[in-house]
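Hello Y.,

Per our agreement to keep a running log of every chain we model this quarter, I'm adding this entry. I've kept the format consistent with earlier entries: sequence first, then predicted structure.
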Amino acid sequence: LKPIPPTEYNSTEDSRAFHRFITEGTAYLEDRNVERERRVFTLSRFLKGKAHEFYLRQVSDSPGTWRLDDFFTKLFNYCFPLDYSTKQRKKLYRSYQGDKRVRNYMSELNELWMMIGNIPERDKVVKFWFGLNPSIQNELYKMQLNPEVSSLTKVQKMAEIIELANLASGSRNHDDRPKGSKRPGRDKNDRHHKETEGVKHPNIPPGYAKDRHGAPRTGDQHRLSKDRGHPN
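Predicted structure for the entry above:
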């Protein structure tokens, strides 16, 4: 198969676009078996705007001496604001699973980790674990996993299995509910309504409030008895 060139990076301050360039660019170099000394030069053809300006000013004199990781790091620092990583760290601290699927939550964390850089593997496991919904955390403990020992790959895999089991259980409980079933406590009220529906209460003068069944309300029953001359 012919190697697929990476999408051009046009210097936009978009972490996803930058991450895409890194991923596609690295794959392109590997598929073409580009020599280490020519890797940075090869990728420079896919840089535009401020990113290409960085290459011309700081790299073009000796591209063969640049390691790919250093090139990506310096390129990022040149194109993004100085406080961008700090902002990404704040997003990471506020990141929790919530209503997201486990896999989508992990993708969100991976993007933030990539933008921040140099995150220890154990810190990733701890963040992922305690960012998951509590019900999934509890099941992970039951599976004898531990955020201080288990690998990130293992924790993610088990979390996805737990999520699927929870979804299946919720769907099964919904399907097992009898058709036409009503909430508890409704049958008695509905039966009373049917028995009294259509029953008339005669001799109730105008001006007296009635309840939903047509009978005088409690307060007006006393007044009605008094007006008719009956004893209290």
